[in-house]
Amino acid sequence: MDSQSLDLYVNNEPARTFKISTSEKGMGFAEGSFRTPTGRFVISEKVGEGEPLYTKFKARVPIGVWDQKEKADDDLILTRILRMGGIDPENANTLERYIYIHGTNREDLIGIPSSHGCIRMSNRDMVELFDAVETGSEVAIHPLTEHKMKLLFLDCDSTLSSIEGIDELARLSDPAIFAEVVALTNAAMDGEVPLDEVFRRRMEIIRPSKEMVEEVCRMYIETVVSGATELVSKAVENSWLPVIISGGFAPIIRPLAERLGIRHVEAVPLYFNDLGEYAGYGEDYPSTRNLGKNEIIREWTKAMLPQRVVMIGDGISDLETKPDVDLMIGFGGVVQREKVRNSADLWLEDFSNLDQLISTLEG
């Protein structure tokens, strides 16, 4: 995976090297992780023989030919599919994860880790490889060994945005509910009450509708903390990968993330029924409990082998990540929590001096 290349061997002799693209989230084996598994595999199925170049597949069935004038952002499966089955215990779920070697509409990203877990190839290279291998051919995917990436984890509420999303959901519900939920939120962020207990109690009280969620999406975007957009842009320029890690709700945070130019959001799933009524949340999601953000950071660190890991946030759940990052920066530009101020590696009250901040991130 380090070289983003695939070597084809014929009769145990190197015959051809192709450029590829593996997952932008690194290596991993968990269902739904969108990470590329490593280890030993076999080609379990070949799909698409004889189909035209740029044929689109859905559930491994051809559904037409991709027009190269179409929007290129979607992750399309094109031209040919080599489906892989894992041989090792840790990658035995590869077949069920639908991890393929396939042609792609994002040929501009070949050579850069950018897939959603599969191995992408240019479409003409995919035809050549497809014709050169058989079902049962062995594949070895080597794990990352080079430390290239730098990870910047950012809390959302009271860090990137000046609001607390769950409090605003409560405000849209009822004044009495709002007061109760704000008190619970502050108790959790100050470390006075276990986060998982507070999370459950708040959601039982609020039971937000889809319309309420859409309103808070808008509020997040309108209340971006001064300098946050520039911070993200400057970090990306300096080869940092920003990731929002939050105890808030993923569908509410994603529009803000897109506005800020952040591709990855680690936040709590939220569910609705067909009528748009509240149907629960991801109760087992790590960031709903204390030390859950640590679990997420360790997973990213294992997957990416980063050079450096930094966390910026305002609350106790952010401070808890200190053992798992190189630098924990407490942010007090919206709310100042004394426990965070006193124990963080660095304390910030604004994002005004970005050059100095980026230099500090670098260590």
How would you describe what is shown here?
This protein is α/β, with parallel strands linked by helices. Helix 3 (175-189) packs antiparallel against helix 4 (195-206) and helix 5 (210-222) packs parallel to helix 7. The model has no long low-confidence stretch (mean pLDDT 95). Strands 1, 2, 3, 4, 5, 6, 7, 8 and 9 form a nine-stranded mixed β-sheet that branches. A six-stranded parallel β-sheet has the order 12-11-10-15-16-17, with helices on both faces. The protein has a two-stranded antiparallel sheet with strand order 13-14. The relative contact order is 0.12. It is 31% helix and 26% strand. It folds into two domains: 5-141, Beta Barrel (L,D-transpeptidase catalytic domain-like), CATH 2.40.440.10; 150-165 and 217-362, 3-Layer(aba) Sandwich (Rossmann fold), CATH 3.40.50. It has helices spanning 123-132, 165-173, 175-189, 195-206, 210-222, 228-237, 250-260, 292-304, 316-319, 338-343, 354-362, and strands spanning 5-10, 13-21, 39-47, 55-58, 61-65, 77-86, 100-103, 119-121, 138-141, 150-154, 240-249, 264-268, 270-272, 278-281, 308-313, 327-331, 346-348.
